[in-house]
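Pilot study result, target chain (107 residues):
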Amino acid sequence: MIDVRADDTLDIVFIPGVDIDTVTGREADEQALRIAVIAFFEQVIGEIDRPTIIQKIELYARRVVESLEFVEEIDSLRVDFSPTDPDVARVEVVYDTGEAFAFDVNN
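Predicted structure:
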């Protein structure tokens, strides 16, 4: 799968003098997960109670991961509130190699 690269604010990344940057493989799957979870979070803000938002985000993230090719490589997926900002949810994927991919979800 090839996709257009999006930065942390979901803006398209351009390479000076070349064109639009792209992502493939695991990086494309990670980006797809990040974008899907952020879009889900923005859609449900104000619709669900704060105590259940972590569980809702984790459930949705697991559904997205299962639909992507890299699901077999994942050892764990965790979602929790950021220790430094209670309005930010932190999603972390840990691969069976010990590598981790994490991103923040906020409004």
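One observation from the pilot: The CA atoms of residues 5 and 11 lie 8 Å apart. A full batch analysis is planned for the follow-on phase.
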